[in-house]
Write a structure and sequence with these properties.
Phosphorylase Kinase, domain 1, Transferase(Phosphotransferase), domain 1, 2 domains, three-stranded antiparallel β-sheet, 21% strand
């Protein structure tokens, strides 16, 4: 840990594009999350800046609310309020391919639907709903994270792109979000992604789908 860093952070998920940390600021007991881009590219920085700009639309009751952009160990990081809860992808991994207990599944499903409904009421389409972008607690309360590609438009018309550069996560993505259908992306696209997430929780496996070329 660099001596000049104002933060004490521990990684809880290292992704291809972003790493998520949990910790606190030195001299402050408030728990925080921090998101750092794995690649120092203008696009990655713009995405962190964009999520930070959504702070007034993201309520801490159902989302990890952005606080500020700052520096940590030579990297730009987005600091968010930590609503607590366990990353949903970690909970799924702990079950090692087995379904989550039905009662707990139902509590989490209700919490996720409620959080996503609040995002939609604020005029946001998340566009990357998946277990890695959700925190849940034992009561089923859920908070969404990962709003770096969220849309503030009621509808979008994505252009076809190679799979490797499509925004979002293909395994959870609605068909229209790939740009290969003559349909616009709207809040229903998030519901498709939520359905894939719930399917994974309930069965212990991802929904199989044909490859995208």
């Amino acid at each position: 840990m660099a001596e000049d860093s104002p933060y004490v952070l521990e990684p809880i998920r290292e992704g291809v594009d972003f790493t998520l940390y949990r910790g606190r600021e030195r001299g402050n007991s408030m728990p925080i999350l921090a998101v750092a881009a794995e690649q120092s590219s203008p696009q990655a920085l713009q995405r962190l800046e964009y999520e930070c700009s959504l702070a007034t639309k993201l309520d801490e009751a159902w989302a990890a609310q952005p606080l500020k952009l700052t520096r940590h160990q030579g990297r730009t990081v987005l600091i968010l309020k930590d609503p607590s809860g366990e990353p949903l992808d970690r909970l799924i991994e702990e079950h090692q391919g087995q379904p989550i207990d039905l009662a707990r599944f139902l509590r989490i499903a209700v919490g996720l639907a409620a959080a996503l409904g609040q995002a939609h009421r604020r005029g946001l389409i998340h566009k990357d709903v998946k277990p890695e972008n959700a925190l849940v607690d034992d009561s089923g309360h859920a908070w969404l994270t990962g709003f770096v590609i969220a849309s503030q438009l009621p509808r979008e018309h994505p252009a076809p792109s190679p799979p490797e550069i499509i925004d979002g996560t293909l395994a959870y993505m609605s068909p229209e979000q790939t740009g290969r259908m003559n349909r616009s992306v709207d809040s229903r696209s998030d519901l498709y992604s939520l359905g894939v997430t719930l399917y994974q929780m309930l069965t212990g496996a991802l929904l199989s789908r044909p490859p995208i070329h």
